[in-house]
Amino acid sequence: MSGTTPETARVLTAAADAARATPGVAFLRPGLADMVRGAAARRLPAGAGGAVAAWGAARTRIAGVRAERLPGAGGWQLRVHLAVRRGHQALAVTRAVRAAVTSAVVEAVTEPGEPAPHVGVSVTVTDIT
Fold first, then answer.
1. Which of these, 71, 110, 117, 119, is most buried using a 10 Å CB contact count?
2. Count of domains in the chain?
3. Counting beta carbons within 10 angstroms of the beta carbon of residue 94, is it exposed (0 to 12), middle (13 to 18) or buried (19 or more)?
4. Distance (Å, whole) CA 122 – CA 125
5. Where are the alpha helices (DSSP H) in the chain?
6. SS3 call for 45
7. 28-76 pLDDT, tens per residue?
8. Using an 8 Å Cβ cutoff, are 96 and 86 in contact?
């Protein structure tokens, strides 16, 4: 993702908020790139935060959520990686997350009077905590 459009940022934020609010979700799981970026940011010398802030302003990344615009009709494909709380059924949580994320993204990108775009959501459970 070389740069993020405001619409993509809206989609990522809506998806992450919906997933986090779903009962049984412990946390969204960062990918390897997010973990490496976090480790690199902790090692920057004092005063280098401005460069990181400027870089972050051009890109919106939310750990555990990836969004891709589909060609043609303009739908979305999202991938959510998360950890499930112990005592919750992983299948039930993934179904609830999928429904919540789909609904949140459709609401975030659909203008009144427009047809709802296709939104595909895949949920991967990476851990049970």
1. 119
2. 1
3. buried
4. 10
5. 6-21, 32-42, 49-58, 90-109
6. coil
7. 998 655 555 555 555 655 555 444 444 443 356 899 999 999 998 789 9
8. no
CA–CA gap between residue 80 and residue 66 (Å, rounded): 7
Which CATH number is 25's domain given? Answer: 3.30.70.1350
Residue 1 located in a structural domain: no
First to last CA, the chain: 30
For 38-43, which contacts have Cβ atoms below 8 Å and span 24 or more sequence positions? none
Crossing angle for the helix pair 90-109 and 6-21, nearest 10 degrees?
150
- Cα angle at 80 between 22 and 32, to 5 degrees? 125
Average pLDDT, the chain: 84
pTM summary value? 0.79
Token pair, residue 23, equals: 């009962």
